[in-house]
Amino acid sequence: MTSDAHPVIGKDAAPVGFQEHDHQSCVATALTSAEVRCKAEGLRLTPVRRKVLEMLLQEHRALGAYAILDRLRDEGFGSQPPVAYRALEFLVQNGFVHKIERLNAFVACSHPGAAHSPAFMICRKCDAVAEAQSAPSKGVLGAAARAAGFEIERTVVEAEGLCPDCTEKA
Ligand SMILES: [Zn+2]
Ligand SMILES: [Zn+2]
Ligand SMILES: [Zn+2]
Predict the structure, then answer these.
(1) What does pTM read for this prediction?
(2) Which residues are close to ligand 2, an ion, with C-beta < 5 A?
(3) What pLDDT band is residue 137 in, cutting at 50, 70 and 90?
(4) Is the confidence at residue 7, as pLDDT, over 60?
């Protein structure tokens, strides 16, 4: 899927992050806030890192490292896998991007800057990904952990199913 085909708003637009929204401003706002945060924290948002973040923001769907590498090459950033991997590593480490283990792919974070445990809803048909917050210290798991004297630091929640768009078509 190219960024040209990406839905913005309107009746026919695919739910992005499962919800129709002004996607152009969604991408622009996220990029700006990434720039501001990098500046404030002394992080270097190099052109290739910024490009990878922008690609992922365009999608609201998981992209594998090779898809990202292909696009980087098309954009003239070279075709060496370490280029993509290093950019992804930076973005993941600093919370701009999450890795979806289930798909071995990456998505842009929906609320970067906030400390959070993401819970992903992944469409098995179109790979659309929506990110919700999970509260690992609450709920059934939290209660079980407390009973066991276990302190949860991190959880990975990846739910698989059908997004509203694919449910409609089915
Ligand atoms: Zn968007
Ligand atoms: Zn997130
Ligand atoms: Zn779907």
Answers:
(1) 0.79
(2) 109, 118
(3) confident
(4) no
